[in-house]
Amino acid sequence: MPPDPNCLFCRLVADGDHVRSTDGFVAIRDINPAAETHLLVLPERHIDTLRDVAELPDEEAARMLRFIAEVAAAEGLEDYRVIVNIGPSAGQTVFHLHWHVLAGSALPGFH
Ligand code: 5GP
Ligand code: ZN
User: Fold this and answer.
1) Which of 24, 55, 58, 92 is most buried (CB neighbours < 10 A)?
2) Catalytic residue positions?
3) Which of 15, 37, 46, 94 to mutate to test the pocket of ligand 1 (most atoms within 8 A of CB)?
4) Closest ligand, as measured to the CA of 15
């Protein structure tokens, strides 16, 4: 889908203030970190949710996963957690696909 002028993350992709980028994907720092390190990895092009992952060709989906690992390595992260919220009741508030990359001492357990 083309950039959506009403989409916050489409605007952040366009503003160029990225931790790291690769062909088609960017990483940014979460404005309200939920852990010591909290990055967001997102496709440059607008996809509403991971539920729509079929819109990504296989090669692009694979590159997205590889980029998450590259971003984590570049941040010096060994152990980290990757989360995607899909839909409002799962906590999704921004409807432009993004992967949370979380690490550090403040990371809560799933217990
Ligand atoms: P979601 O709740 O949709 O899974 O995640 C949205 C994330 O975007 C939240 O963790 C929130 O803190 C982050 N966020 C919201 N607005 C901004 C912003 O303007 N800039 C950045 N960098 N992150 C934002
Ligand atoms: Zn968007």
Assistant:
1) 92
2) 98
3) 94
4) 1
| pTM of the full structure | 0.94
- Distance between Cα 32 and ligand 1 center (Å): 7
Q: Which residues pair with 40 in a beta bridge?
A: 28, 100
91 to 40, 66, 87: CA distances (angstroms): 15, 24, 7
CATH 3.30.428.10 describes domain 8-103:
yes
Where in the chain are the domains?
A: 8-103
* Per-residue pLDDT tens digits of the chain, which is 111 residues long: 667 779 999 999 999 889 999 999 999 999 999 999 999 999 999 999 999 999 899 999 999 999 999 999 999 999 999 999 999 999 999 999 999 999 998 677 765
